[in-house]
Amino acid sequence: MTSEEKTAYKNKSHTKGHEKKHSKFHQKSHKDPPGFVDDIEMNHETSVPRENDPFAPRGGKALLWQNINMTLKGKDGVEDRHLLKDVWGGVPQKQTTAIMGPSGAGKTSLLNILAGRAKSRGALSVESDIRLNNYQVDPTDISVRKNIAFVAQDDSLMVTQTPREAIYFSAKLRLPKSTKEEEILNLVDSMLEELGLSHCADTIVGGPLLKGISGGERKRTSVGVELVTKPSMVFLDEPTSGLDSYSAVQLCNVLRKVANAGASVLFTIHQPASEIFNAFDNIILMNKGRVMYQGSVDVVPEFFKERGQKIPKNYNPADWIMHVAQAVDLDQLDADGFFPKDTRVLGEPLRSGIDKKKNFGLSMTRRTISSGHGDDSSKTISFDAAVVEQGILSNNGSFERVSVMTQTRMMFVREFKNLKRDKGALVGRLGFTTAIATLIGVVFWKVGELPRDVPMNLNSQFGALTMVLMAGMMGTAQPALLTFPQERPVFLREYSTNHYSVVSYFLSRLTIEVLVTALQCFLLVLVSFLMVGLQSNFMFFFINTYALAMVSTALAVMLGCSVEDPKLATQMMPLVFIPQLLLAGFFISPTLIPAWLRWLRWAFSLTYVMRLGVLEEFSDCQGEKASMACDGLINSIEADSDESWWYWLTLAVLFVVFRLLALFILRRKATKFL
Ligand SMILES: Nc1ncnc2c1ncn2[C@@H]1O[C@H](COP(=O)(O)OP(=O)(O)OP(=O)(O)O)[C@@H](O)[C@H]1O
């Protein structure tokens, strides 16, 4: 143990000792189930926080719950499965609480319900009574979820960001706008140091295809991203998994410091080492969806001993309680007095007149909860208005955050860096475009310069034009279709933890697409136009291809936003391309398409771009025979030069409509996701 860690442990022991003096926990008989209500200390520290200290004191929030049930309805006569049954408990402020239990006991399910990441769906039904500062809340509501810092088990970090950038990004977007740049930088440095990430602070996070920092370092970066905002409530799903014992202890020390600062910390953990186990304040031991024990870690030996399961000498208590949970029959455990009943009386929840999006009862002044253990003791919960006004509470939306413009700019910069760092993807995209353009150029070499009075030449010129447009459409829409499903985990994590608005995300993505698509189209048109020898104006040809790419990309983004799985998005690609190709008039004259289906061509950009392209390329054919052939071609796709303005206008409208629909779908997905 380093001297720093020892100091941290000492601080912890001091805090716990202090709390014990006031706790009635140890006076309970074994019949009294250990509970949290007695231990809830609701008075907040009001000292002015040091802004660049990640462990600056903060006002906390208390979370209590009761009657949590999660049931999987059985089909075809199969009995219902009770995944969670009458689960009750709480997360006291200034304390760390670990949810433990054998595999499948319901740890993650409980954490997910409390964090608003699980709800009734299909055969799965979820019931709960969850109180935040004694306000009954639905954590699946995005406004509630934003009050809870959540570190999921799977790290969903941007692979091309460094830990320093990821933590800075979170701090900049989530701390009050008034926070000075220097303070943020200091805060990020302190966070990196506390988490033992200084040595790899400027190495990219990496992922399956891009080498970066180690799995443990990634995990700690995810924790840093959440803790840097000085949250008052922190949930973590298996934060120590994948960490070596030293890093796990280091992380637990950090969580301890966060709790000491005033936060409520709740996390799931698999079998912890005794050193780590003894560092928790409380545990919730789950067994087959029920609460087998919950309360102070210090009471565990006594609680188990009184029920005939004395912890053997030199045995890790965590190993022992897990052993008991797994080895002893459920009925026997019940008979022995495990699975304590909830005897708290939480009283009527507060509901009235509070804008939950803004303050979650922070304007509440007094509230009493009785302990329900037969004594008359009660605790008064008071919220110090000064604490709120000083903006000490983070993650509650009560302070002014950076503007949508700043959010958009920061995300644009991040996306731009992503492009630069993930060179393989960008070079691949531009390289493939150039290769395809070259192939088209070689196949249609100087075809555009051939006399047009020969039908075969005209056909080839039309074919070349079609191929360039199709290449432009496919080459740009395909990556756009995949973008959201691929970025989804990062987007949803960041959105649900209040990093930015859907509009900012959308605008930053759009700006990047505008630039990359322009570059891609320019390469495609430059190479193919020169090699094929088309007669159109170069700028016109480029703008026309670019318009097609932008509208097709908008359609692809819309479809991409509506699916969650990148594989499904890949399978959807023909849906973007085939109907356009079928109906635009390349392969079949529109008059031959069944009338009930023909109208659909007006919804596709290719129809308009094709007409504009053909009008530009073939309107001015020299010679009577060539002129007649060109007019025939123009007529066959129903192009009309007088309607050019209408084609451009419709392209613009389609672009806006697809983009707005995508925004709408994205917003729905973001607020409803679980
Ligand atoms: N959405 C769901 N649909 C069906 N069953 C589910 C669902 N979510 C959880 N379960 C079941 O509920 C039980 C508890 O799962 P949960 O993931 O909460 O356990 P856990 O204690 O976190 O396990 P582990 O330690 O292995 O991660 C498991 O049997 C699991 O299969």
From TrEMBL:
Boundaries of every ABC transporter domain copy: 63-313
InterPro entries xrefs: AAA+_ATPase (IPR003593), ABC2_TM (IPR013525), ABC_transporter-like_ATP-bd (IPR003439), ABCG_dom (IPR043926), ABCG_transporters (IPR050352), P-loop_NTPase (IPR027417)
Coiled-coil region list: none
Basic residues composition bias: residue spans: 9-29
Gene Ontology MF terms in the entry: ABC-type transporter activity; ATP binding; ATP hydrolysis activity
Organism: Cylindrotheca closterium
Gene3D superfamilies documented for this protein: P-loop containing nucleotide triphosphate hydrolases (3.40.50.300)
Listed name of the protein: ABC transporter domain-containing protein
